[in-house]
Give the backbone structure.
Amino acid sequence: MALLNLIEKDQATGRVAEIYESMINTIGFIPNAFKIFSPSEHVLDVQVGNLGYFMRHKTLGGKLLAFIRLLVSEQEQCVYCVGMNSGILLQYGVLPEMIAEIKLDASKAPLEEKDMAMLLFVLKVVKNSSSIEQTDVDALKKLGWNDTEILEA
C-alpha cells in the first residue's frame, strides 16, 4: 500500500495522462512500479524515458537486466519487484524452479560469461560498493564491457 496519493488513470491529467495512455496502448496496463511516480510528472517522465532507453539498449540485454533487477530486489526484499522480474524471466524461458535456485546462487543464472560477470559485479556493488577495486572493473573491460555500460548496469 502506497503512503502517497497515487494518481489513477481516471484522475490523470497532463503528462501523467499521456504516459498512462501510452502504457495502456503499449503493454495493456499501467504497472504499479510506474504509478508510484505519478505524484511527480517529472519523475514519472524520467522513469518512462529510462525504461525506453534500457529496452532498446544495444549491449545490456533484457535478460541480463531482468536478472539484475530480480537479484537486487531479492536482496532489498522488494516483493513486488521480485515478482515482476520473475515474470519477465519466465518470458525468457527461465523456469520458476530455476529462479528459486538463482536467487540462492546468482552464478546459476543462464547467462553467457560476459553477462554473468556483469551480473556478479553489479550484485557486488549493491552489496558493498566500497569492496569494488580496479581489478573488478578491469576484468569487465577485458570481457568487452566499457565504462558507459558498466555505469549503466
